[in-house]
Amino acid sequence: MNNPTSSRRKLLKQMGLGIGLAASSSLPASAAERAGVTSKTKQLLKTDVLVVGGGPAGIGAALGAARTGVKTLLIESCGFFGGVAAWSLGMPINQMRPERKPRSEIHELVIEKLLAYGEQSIYIGQHQLYCNVDYLKVAVLDALDEVGCKYLVHLSAADAVVEGNRVTGVVVSTKQGLATISAKVVVDCTGDADIAYFAGAETMMETKEPRMPSTLLLGMANVSPEQIRRVNMRKIADAARSKYPLLPKSWRLKPVSNCSHYWINHTGTRDIGQFDMTDPFERSEAECVSRRQALQMTCAMREFGGDELKEIELVATNPRIAVRETRRVKGSYILTEEDAVKGRTFEDVIAWRSGYLDLMGYKFTKMMIHDVPYRSILPEKVDALLTAGRCISATHVSMAAGKSMGNCVATGHAAGLAAAMAAKKGIQPRELKVAQLQDALRKDGVDLKMGGKIQVNVSGDRGV
Ligand SMILES: Cc1cc2nc3c(=O)[nH]c(=O)nc-3n(C[C@H](O)[C@H](O)[C@H](O)COP(=O)(O)OP(=O)(O)OC[C@H]3O[C@@H](n4cnc5c(N)ncnc54)[C@H](O)[C@@H]3O)c2cc1C
Prior knowledge:
Layout: H1 4-14, E1 22-23, H2 29-34, E2 42-52, H3 56-66, E3 72-75, H4 84-87, E4 93-94, H5 105-115, E5 122-124, E6 128-131, H6 133-147, E7 150-152, E8 156-163, E9 166-174, E10 177-188, H7 194-198, E11 203-204, E12 218-221, H8 225-230, H9 233-240, E13 254-255, E14 262-264, H10 280-304, H11 306-309, E15 313-317, E16 328-329, H12 337-342, E17 349-353, E18 356-358, E19 364-366, E20 370-373, E21 385-387, H13 396-401, H14 405-425, H15 434-443
Parallel strand pairs: 1-8, 2-3, 2-10, 3-7, 10-21
Antiparallel strand pairs: 4-6, 5-6, 8-9, 9-10, 11-16, 12-14, 12-15, 13-14, 17-20, 18-19
Bound molecules: flavin-adenine dinucleotide (FAD).
């Protein structure tokens, strides 16, 4: 387990900075000062539910909360919403409509908004949804507008504001300096459990086994499906490795939605080193080395791919490296590998997770649909805070089992609804009657009896 207080202080000391852990009028003056929050700090906004991070989980949470009519604000550090789904240049959004069956009104709202842009924007497979990410970015805005959710991009949460054990808002970093946003309930959808960590909640990060790698995906053009079918990428990589040492073992080109250009997912940093993507130095190193890796892959294809690939060209990379695994919040229940493999069900089910248990080359195994209990999205001890997506309370292996984006939308949906219900009632999320949350989820089209079922044809992927 990480000790957020000591490791963060150590880091800030190393960096010569003076930002504190959490700020509130009840904290000693020095701590509030260190946080940069004074009585003069600008309050940017006040809301009922604040969702931090606009990836799949944040989108689910924002839509889930705002649809109840509760004042909801979604903030995101990038210039658009979608998180890894929008960065990754065409990668399938898995488990959004598994077995082509709707899984909730929230999932369907995003799909409906994409479909509105025509068939070039989306291709729906058996378990996968392939989309052109630039349509996705706008489709998400359309969905947020429809439910009346307020949103701001280019806004990073840099700290939590905490009173006693209750989160009352976040500190954001803006071009005008630090500012605060106050909220009755905050939903941490940062992927990295940033808000929980800033608030002093206990978080977990794998230290014994290798963590899943991070990857900068590539967008490629100037190549035909026939040319792609004729090349053996592993042989190209083997032949080119002495000149281009950062090459992954192999990779595949896959079509973007219904278009004629391609995206490449690959093992990223796996064979380069273990990076702690919450450490600013290591994250910076991983980003920079991955940018070199993407160019080495392109050069290798052009130089060692014969006539078929000599014209292939790199047309895009993610705006930032896509991170698979960092911190997770510790809740009063920690989901396990066994829960995933055996398809465990829970009385306090609020979502389900499906797909494959895929640890990115370290483990790949079938699993069953399994429940997520409410206890796994509630941080222990810290109030007015919920979490969703890849940073919910789960072991390292179980985190990999739940990482498909449709599952992250589902935990986001539940967390957003719970936050809205708690804010409306003026109670803490842990005081909410789970049965009421379950009823609200059912009204939104969620089937809470999926745990224990087996999925078919999960890997029905699209080739060239
Ligand atoms: C390389 C790669 C390939 C993958 N392949 C697939 C696949 O094929 N299919 C699939 O379904 N899943 C895939 N996954 C898994 C999936 O993408 C993730 O599990 C999922 O995106 C997690 O959703 P999330 O919303 O929890 O986090 P993220 O998608 O990471 O989103 C978090 C968001 O929060 C924002 N944020 C972070 N910190 C702050 C802050 N302090 N303030 C404000 N905003 C902040 C980030 O900018 C980001 O937009 C892949 C993941 C990776 C990295």
